[in-house]
């Protein structure tokens, strides 16, 4: 039970762990556009990204559990009047998928370089905005553009892989194993396409002359998302390879 | 007195569309969610009324509706369940009140991602339109129940409504999942990152805790339902066999082979049981807030309440199998699910006794919000006590798919959550609209609704124990069930009266918005941050200032204080022994 003895609040004791937030929201492009505290916005955006990644993980965990359960299920075969396993082996185009994996690996590296580049530009922005101060003609390699290209390359490679599966006689409804092969790869591709859209949005931020810090936030969280897409793809690749 | 941090305020958006339609203001979005849920609850209630009429007058031809056939009855119960669970019980407590109140209660100017917030509402709205569209397509609405068990839900020719209607049903739920995930992400980030100075976790109001935990549940559960729904859509439209075994429908052998309907049940209930807590946890938060405020006492066992909610959320993910005792589950699994389910009784009891402990020796103000909060506790206990019955596989064999289950979940999940919504409406209405609701009509509404609710749902337990099966559209053809029809008739009359009483609420709500007496900034003499700002709050919630928090959320009856309550922003009160 408390007693009413007003005490003088002492900073840092019994308070929250952060300084007060300015009276605007805006981790996304909402009312916080004019919020100068980019550090806080970046932290907030990263927190939101962690939540989004947790959700995507739950989607793939549930698909994996369905995969394992369905793989082990016996089914009644009316021809032999007995229970059999109907899980077939899909002939995946391994070489093509390996090339796609390499593309995604390289794109993850270029994405990381783009993230560091954006962070450096954001850090130097206050200096370069001082009249009379020049940082020289620093040539900045278009890592972001290269990542987008590699991302499209990965998607095109996946498209070719699905075509290869069709050529091999495997469609979505051919066998539960082919159903899952298509389902997992398409679901991953949809999520990766979301990452590409985010990258294009980040690239447009520079074209639209938005503050370099705002662009940095977009690039930063997309980069983490992109790395997650790589890990997720390696996981799917391993699942399809080792739990056939 | 600590000085709030003064910072630059931003202007409110101008223009009707930016201000009221595509607004990024959490308060407007909260109200949008609330009114969407209000529209949905009337649709759901109307469907339940049709069902109750049909059960006792099966051959009646209703104006505009016509004769209700057995398949129509199944469509009605499917749509009633789906609309109520998703678009009312998930939408109003979290999307509505959570959106409106949470940022203000933690001293934030808005949600962390305002545009995403707007997007989640409008996605929910689209989901609602899509599910309503299922009524109007060829074949009508689906008839597979809100749980959507395959193979009925997975084969287009399995029955009327299982064609396009079922596709729209699944699409609507998938859209709702996306909206809920966006909302959950926003709630979690806002709670963790936008708290005002001094608002440490253990100073957060229990409402904030409940919305925060609910958001975590949503974040982890809706993704699973989304996956399950995609698999169902593929089975229905692309001929895959995730859920559908070798099956003959209407004499035709289907192309599916080897799928497992149990796979859907596992995935669905992994979402479905946490969904129960998604519906009820915000009500627990609201009840805690109101009972403390109107008892003029600190909440009994604040930390215990927090840990109880956390453990309810945790256990919520461990017990999905208790919905499947009748599905041929291994007895060992059933035992594990049974024990874990009964474990939830412990934190639930902690919460109940803490609510009672808070009221004990309190100077209780029996105003409408308090009445509804007490009603919530009553329904939570009444509905909750039948839970341990159903948690035991041996008893569940008898009670499964009977009216006992219908009575149980309507009391604990349905009406208790609705009472939470009513309590929250009467409590925060002054803050939302700047006026007071009519107290007399509020009390009349409460007593009729409480009595009506018990009159409708308590007899269901007896019906269930007597063996009356759920989902049957008529009882007249089954000899032992015809003897139970008088009780069904009583329940239908009770439903008429209870639903009619809701008009009192609606009239009171809209009349008070425009004609109610003006509300002060803190009409209930409460302590949390929303009562420190003006009524209704300015666009940035605190008029260009950020509050600094020094006290816990329930400092009532502090010895020596000039008033019987100390606001969270008042100078810090010293704990006993200082």
Helical coverage of chain A, percent range: 55-70%
Quick one: CATH superfamily of the domain at 42-68 and 93-127 and 142-242 in chain A?
Cytochrome c oxidase, subunit III, four-helix bundle
Structural class of chain A: mainly alpha
C-alpha-based Rg of chain B, rounded: 24 Å
Largest interface: A-B, 60 and 92 residues
Question: What spatial form of chain B do the alpha-carbon principal axes imply?
Answer: globular
In the CATH hierarchy, what is the superfamily of the largest domain in chain B? Cytochrome c oxidase-like, subunit I domain
Dominant shape of chain A: elongated
SSE run of chain B: EHHEEHHHHHEEHHHHHHHHHHHEE
Structural class of chain B: mainly alpha
Q: Could you please say which CATH topology of the largest domain in chain B applies here?
A: Cytochrome C Oxidase, Chain A
What is the topology, as strand order, of the major beta sheet of chain B? 1-6
Unreliably modeled segments of chain B: 5-9
Q: What proportion of the residues of chain B form beta strands (DSSP E)?
A: under 5%
- Terminal CA distance of chain B reads 19 Å
Number of strands of chain A: 3
Which labels suit this protein?
heterodimer, A: 244 residues, mainly alpha, Four Helix Bundle (Hemerythrin (Met), subunit A), 6% strand, B: Cytochrome C Oxidase, Chain A, Cytochrome C Oxidase, Chain A, two-stranded antiparallel ribbon, 7 strands
Please, could you describe this protein's structure?
The complex is a heterodimer of chains A (244) and B (578). Chain A has 244 residues and is mainly alpha-helical. Chain A has a domain at 42-68 and 93-127 and 142-242: Cytochrome c oxidase, subunit III, four-helix bundle (Four Helix Bundle (Hemerythrin (Met), subunit A)), CATH 1.20.120.80. Chain A has five helices and three strands, in the order βαββαααα. In chain A, α4 (176-207) packs antiparallel against α5 (212-242). Chain B has a two-stranded antiparallel sheet with strand order 1-6. A two-stranded antiparallel ribbon of chain B has the order 2-3. A two-stranded antiparallel sheet of chain B has the order 4-5. Chain B has 578 residues and is mostly helical. The radius of gyration of chain B is 24 Å and the shape is globular. Chain B contains 18 helices and seven strands. Classes of the chains: A mainly alpha (244), B mainly alpha (578). Chains A and B meet through β1, α1 and α4 of A and α5, α6, α7, α8 and β6 of B. β1 (2-7) of chain A pairs antiparallel with β7 (572-575) of chain B.
């Amino acid at each position: 039970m408390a007693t009413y003895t007003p005490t003088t609040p002492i900073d840092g004791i019994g308070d929250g762990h952060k300084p007060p937030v300015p009276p605007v929201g805006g981790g996304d492009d909402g009312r916080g556009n004019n919020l100068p505290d980019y550090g806080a916005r970046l932290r907030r955006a990263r927190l939101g990204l962690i939540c989004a990644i947790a959700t995507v993980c739950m989607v793939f965990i549930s698909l994996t559990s369905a995969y394992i359960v369905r793989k082990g299920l016996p089914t009644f075969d009316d021809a032999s009047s007995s229970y059999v396993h109907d899980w077939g082996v899909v002939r995946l185009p391994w070489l093509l998928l390996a090339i796609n994996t390499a593309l995604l690996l390289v794109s993850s590296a270029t994405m990381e370089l783009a993230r560091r580049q954006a962070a450096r530009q954001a850090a130097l922005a206050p200096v370069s905005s001082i009249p009379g101060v020049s940082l020289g003609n620093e040539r900045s390699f278009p890592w972001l553009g290269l990542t987008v290209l590699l991302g499209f390359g990965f998607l095109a490679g996946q498209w070719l892989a699905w075509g290869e599966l069709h050529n091999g006689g495997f469609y979505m409804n051919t066998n539960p194993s082919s159903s899952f092969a298509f389902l997992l790869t398409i679901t991953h591709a949809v999520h990766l396409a979301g990452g590409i859209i985010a990258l294009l949005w980040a690239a447009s931020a520079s074209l639209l002359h938005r503050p370099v810090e705002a662009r940095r936030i977009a690039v930063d969280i997309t980069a983490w998302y992109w790395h997650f897409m790589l890990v997720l793809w390696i996981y799917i690749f391993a699942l399809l390879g080792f739990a056939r | 007195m600590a000085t709030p941090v003064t910072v630059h305020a931003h202007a409110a958006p101008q223009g009707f569309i930016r201000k009221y339609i595509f607004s990024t203001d959490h308060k407007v979005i909260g109200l949008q969610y609330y009114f969407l849920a209000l529209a949905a609850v009337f649709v759901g209630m109307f469907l339940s009324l049709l069902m109750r009429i049909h059960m006792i007058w099966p051959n009646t031809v209703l104006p505009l509706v016509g004769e209700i056939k057995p398949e129509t009855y199944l469509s009605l119960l499917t749509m009633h369940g789906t609309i109520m669970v998703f678009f009312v019980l998930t939408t109003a407590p979290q999307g509505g009140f959570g959106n409106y109140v949470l940022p203000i209660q933690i001293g934030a100017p808005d949600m962390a991602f305002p545009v995403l917030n707007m997007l989640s509402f409008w996605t929910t709205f689209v989901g609602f339109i899509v599910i309503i569209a299922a009524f109007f397509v060829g074949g009508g609405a689906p008839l597979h129940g809100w749980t959507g068990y395959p193979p009925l839900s997975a084969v287009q020719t399995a029955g009327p409504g299982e064609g396009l209607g079922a596709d729209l049903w699944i699409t609507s739920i998938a859209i709702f999942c996306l909206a809920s995930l966006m909302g959950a992400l926003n709630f979690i980030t806002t709670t963790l990152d936008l708290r005002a100075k001094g608002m440490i976790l253990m100073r957060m109001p229990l409402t904030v805790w409940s919305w925060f935990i609910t958001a975590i549940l949503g974040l982890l559960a809706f993704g699973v339902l989304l996956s399950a729904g995609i698999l169902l859509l593929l089975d229905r439209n692309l001929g895959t066999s995730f859920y559908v075994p070798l099956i003959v429908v209407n004499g035709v052998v289907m192309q599916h082979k080897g799928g497992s309907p149990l796979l859907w049940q596992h995935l669905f209930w992994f979402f479905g049981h946490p969904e129960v807590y998604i519906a009820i946890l915000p009500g627990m938060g609201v009840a805690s807030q109101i009972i403390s405020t109107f008892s003029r006492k600190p909440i009994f066992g604040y930390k215990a309440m927090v840990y109880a909610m956390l453990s309810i959320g945790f256990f919520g993910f461990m017990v999905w199998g208790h919905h499947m005792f009748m599905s041929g589950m291994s007895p060992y699994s059933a035992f594990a699910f049974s024990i874990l389910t009964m474990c939830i009784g412990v934190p639930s009891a902690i919460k109940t006794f803490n609510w009672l402990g808070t009221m004990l020796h309190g100077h209780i103000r029996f105003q409408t919000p308090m009445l509804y909060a007490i009603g919530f506790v009553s329904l939570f206990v009444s509905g909750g006590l039948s839970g341990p019955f159903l948690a035991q596989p041996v008893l569940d064999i008898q009670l499964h798919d009977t009216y006992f289950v219908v009575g149980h979940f309507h009391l604990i999940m349905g009406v208790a959550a609705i009472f939470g919504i009513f309590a929250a409406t009467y409590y925060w209405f002054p803050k939302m609209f700047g006026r007071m609701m009519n107290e007399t009509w509020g009390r009349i509404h409460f007593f009729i609704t409480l009595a009506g609710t018990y009159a409708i749902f308590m007899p269901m337990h007896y019906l269930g124990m007597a063996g009356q099966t759920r989902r049957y559209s008529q009882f007249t053809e089954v000899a032992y069930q015809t003897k139970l029809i008088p009780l069904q008739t009583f329940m239908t009359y009770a439903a008429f009266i209870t639903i009619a009483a809701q008009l009192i609420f609606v009239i009171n709500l809209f009349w008070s918005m425009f004609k109610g007496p003006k509300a002060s900034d803190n009409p209930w003499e409460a302590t949390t941050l929303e009562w420190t700002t003006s009524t209704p709050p300015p666009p940035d919630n605190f008029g260009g200032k950020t509050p600094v928090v020094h006290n816990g959320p329930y400092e009532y009856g502090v010895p020596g204080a000039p008033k019987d309550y100390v606001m969270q922003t008042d100078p810090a009160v010293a704990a006993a022994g200082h």
